[in-house]
């Protein structure tokens, strides 16, 4: 749920929490009438994305897998997978790889697997991709299982400081 990213400028207050905080506090905050949070656009950040220091990302922007956002950038539009963007507003600087390599990496979805189990040629992109393609095609890659809790598992009795502890 996008709570703090959008602000209704045509209503009494520009704070969405002013109109409906049921999802935050379990009961209406000030008014029973609510802003339709489903109409808000969610910001989505893909896998293996590097976001530099002091970056600002507008609500509803999608940052594709493997993208790099330069420090201090203001991202106002979607960022393509494996692109490098920077500036205010952020603009395309370059693509990290060729279209063929990007397609192969996205088909691999390597971030879904526990790669710590395998000795990979990590300092050679082409060889790493080839090794992973063989492992995936042979059904050898094992899915990565996170020990962290998802945001949906966090409730009023669970504090963020407990993330990762077992």
Distance between the termini: 27 Å
Question: What is the number of beta strands?
Answer: 8
Multimeric organization? single chain
Mean pLDDT: 78
The DSSP helix count reads 4
Shape from CA axes?
Answer: elongated
- Helicity level: 10-25%
Strand content: 5-15%
Count of the domains: 2
Low-confidence stretches: 21-32, 155-166
The helix/strand class is alpha/beta
> Helix-strand pattern, N to C?
HHEEEEEEEEHH
What is the CA-based Rg, rounded? 20 Å
Biggest sheet strand order reads: 2-5-7-8
Q: Largest beta sheet, briefly?
A: 4 strands, mixed
Any overview of this molecule?
The protein has 166 residues and is α/β, with parallel strands linked by helices. The protein has 2 domains: 44-95, Hexapeptide repeat proteins (UDP N-Acetylglucosamine Acyltransferase, domain 1, 3 Solenoid); 97-161, no CATH class. The chain is 19% helix and 14% strand. The chain has 4 helices and 8 strands, in the order H-H-E-E-E-E-E-E-E-E-H-H. Strands 2-5-7-8 form a 4-stranded mixed beta sheet, with no helix packed on it. A hairpin with a 2-residue loop joins strand 7 and strand 8. Helix 3 (99-108) packs parallel to helix 4. The relative contact order is 0.09. Residues 21-32 and 155-166 have low confidence and may be disordered.
Features:
166 residues; two-stranded parallel ribbon; 4-stranded mixed β-sheet; 8 strands
Could you provide a short overview of the structure?
With 166 residues, the chain is an alpha/beta fold. The chain is built from four helices and eight strands, in the order ααββββββββαα.
């Amino acid at each position: 749920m996008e709570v703090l990213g959008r602000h209704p400028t045509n209503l009494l207050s520009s704070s969405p929490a002013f109109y409906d905080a049921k999802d935050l506090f379990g009961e209406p905050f000030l008014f029973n009438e609510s802003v339709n949070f489903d109409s808000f656009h969610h910001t989505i950040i893909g896998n293996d994305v590097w976001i530099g220091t002091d970056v600002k990302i507008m609500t509803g922007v999608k940052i594709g897998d493997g993208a790099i956002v330069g420090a201090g950038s203001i991202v106002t539009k979607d960022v393509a997978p494996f692109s490098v963007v920077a500036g205010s507003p952020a603009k395309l600087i370059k693509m990290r790889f060729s279209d063929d390599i990007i397609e192969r990496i996205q088909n691999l979805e390597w971030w879904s697997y526990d790669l710590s189990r395998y000795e990979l040629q990590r300092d050679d992109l082409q060889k790493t991709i080839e090794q992973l393609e063989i492992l995936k095609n042979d059904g050898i890659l094992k899915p990565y299982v996170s020990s962290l809790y998802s945001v949906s598992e966090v409730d009023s009795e669970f504090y963020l400081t407990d993330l990762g502890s077992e």
